Amino acid sequence: MEIEFLGAAGTVTGSKYLLTVNDYHILVDCGLFQGIRELRRRNWDTFPFPASRIDAVLITHGHLDHVGYLPRLVKQGLKCPVYCTNPTADLMRILLKDTAKIQEEDAAHANENRYSKHETALPLYNLKDVEKSLSLLNPVPAQQYIELNSDIKVKFRKNAHILGATFIEMVVGGKRIVFSGDVGRPDDAMLQHREKPDKADILFVESTYGDRYHPQVSTESVILEIINHAIESHGPLIVSSFTVDRAQDFMYVIWRLKQEGKIPDIPVYLDSPMGTDVSHLFINYSGWLNSDGKVFAEVFRDTRMVTSIQETFHLANDKNLKIVIAGSGMLNGGRVLHYLEKQLGNPNATIVLPGYQAEGTRGRHLSEGVPEIKIHGKYYQVRARVEHIKTMSSHADQRELLSWMSAIDKKPEKVFIVHGEPQSSDALRVKIKDTFGWDAVLPHYREVFHLEL
Predict the structure, then answer these.
(1) What stretch of H or E contains 29?
(2) Which of 17, 80, 358, 407 could form a disulfide with 28 if both were Cys (CB 3.0 to 4.6 A apart)?
(3) Count of CB atoms within 10 A of residue 383's CB?
(4) What is the Cα–Cα distance from 453 to 450, expressed in whole angstroms?
(5) Phi, psi (5° rounding) for residue 54?
(6) Which DSSP symbol is given to 14?
(7) Please, which residues bridge with residue 177 across strands?
(8) Could you tell me which of 400, 401, 368, 373 has the C-alpha nearest to residue 386?
(9) Among residues 421, 416, 439, which one has the least CA distance to residue 178?
(10) What is the topology classification, in CATH, of domain 219-389?
(11) What phi and psi, each to the nearest 5 degrees, are found at residue 155?
């Protein structure tokens, strides 16, 4: 058995792990590289293993850095079943179509305005590629083993990161292999509590926040303070939110603040067709929530859905008090860019970044206080107030990662630390050694390890 690290090694993005057992090839996650140009360029490279020889793809959850490369791989010959939970399959149907549409629009815009460095800008993949990818989806129930072949079975277990998110337990012969996916928080406001692995002969663990603790202050109090400042400024509050889970969390907290009489009935808009579709899934999959699905139905009714790009342009130009939640979470694209173009220079406006901002993204640049950012080939000065909410992360911090691993009954034979920037991964390595006495490895991109069955 061998494992090759084709992404999320030394970085938080592009999750892809190729596990070969005898002559059976399993790709765990199939994510896009995001962030700095050096990483994004890898998306355009030919996949280093023949896609047609992959026998199964396992998806931990529906974020683009875990699923967004799938249509590109299908273009290169992938034709095997893609296994995931039912909510993840529905999320993929929404996210991949939206991503293809954005890529097609961005390429057309670059060609029309001639700001691409290439003679002709092309999308990484298009809607036809997405449709071919979706035909491969094979959703399975969580908590039940399925057999890939006579020697390998896998189980998806709830992980409280986003709707449908899981870690994967794989049994190969007599050994259990655990892929953490993205580990969620133990006290998520909306999702059912995460499960923990009780055994792992070989463990892959993410390390996004492996070097820090999340602030202990409540998210509700942080958001209340930001909203009160926006009220005093009489300016718009623009939330650059991940449309899966973070947007819904923000909607839920605002609804609760209104219900408790802590803020007035400020108009709240969700400007993301994808976010609207995702919000419906929270109602459809209430079994993944820790509250009655009827509660989120009320939250949904309290939020005004933006249905046209004309309404987006109107809201983006309006400098009055309102709350707009728009994708994408790291400002890589999406409708939030229209708001930034109009409101970054407005000192009465507030831009909110709720969640992790990867290296090289506009979100990271804004959170670090840059004086200007580039959008669609043009620079915009930053005069608006920028708030980075760090209590809303859907990733476990160092303490919570250790707690997630604490139920493992004996020392794993091998521990691989993945999905983290080098400092975070190394800090978690040291802490794992000090806490459990386990030695861990920080793999490099394209590194291959041989493992004993």
Answers:
(1) none
(2) 17
(3) 14
(4) 10
(5) -75, 130
(6) -
(7) 170, 202
(8) 368
(9) 416
(10) Rossmann fold (3.40.50)
(11) -135, 135
Cβ atoms of residues 451 and 414 within 8 Å: yes
Per the document, the length of the chain is 453
Sequence-ordered alpha helix ranges (H) in 285-355: 293-302, 309-317, 336-343
Q: At 81, list the tokens.
A: 């079943």
CATH code linked to domain 2-212+394-450:
3.60.15.10
Phi-psi region at 207: left, alpha or beta (left = phi > 0; alpha = psi -120 to 50): alpha
Asked if 233 contacts 346 with a C-beta cutoff of 8 angstroms, the reply is no
**Phi, then psi, of 449 in degrees rounded to 5:** -125, 135
Locate 275 and state its tokens.
């976010």
pLDDT tens for the chain, residues 1 to 453: 999 999 999 999 999 999 999 999 999 999 999 988 899 999 999 999 999 999 999 999 999 999 999 999 999 999 999 999 999 999 999 999 988 988 888 788 777 777 666 677 888 999 999 999 999 999 999 999 999 999 999 999 999 999 999 999 999 988 999 999 999 999 887 899 999 999 999 999 999 999 999 988 989 999 999 999 999 999 999 999 877 878 888 999 999 999 999 999 999 999 988 888 888 898 889 889 887 667 888 888 899 999 898 999 999 999 999 999 998 778 888 889 999 999 999 999 999 998 778 788 899 999 999 999 999 889 999 999 999 998 888 899 999 999 999 999 999 999 999 999 999 999 999 999 999 999 999 999 999 999 988
DSSP classification of residue 286: G
Of the candidates 389, 385, 326, 332, the residue with the CA atom closest to the CA atom of residue 360: 332
β-bridge mates for residue 153, sequence order: 147, 171
Residue ranges per domain, the chain?
2-212+394-450, 219-389
Residue 328 and residue 334 in contact, taking contact as beta carbons nearer than 8 Å: yes
Handedness of CA 99, 313, 35, 91 (dihedral sign): negative
The span from the first CA to the last CA of the chain, in angstroms, equals 6
Measured CA to CA, the distance from residue 253 to residue 224 in angstroms comes to 9
Q: Where are the alpha helices (DSSP H) in 114-184?
A: 127-134
Integer Cα distance of 77 and 83 in angstroms: 17
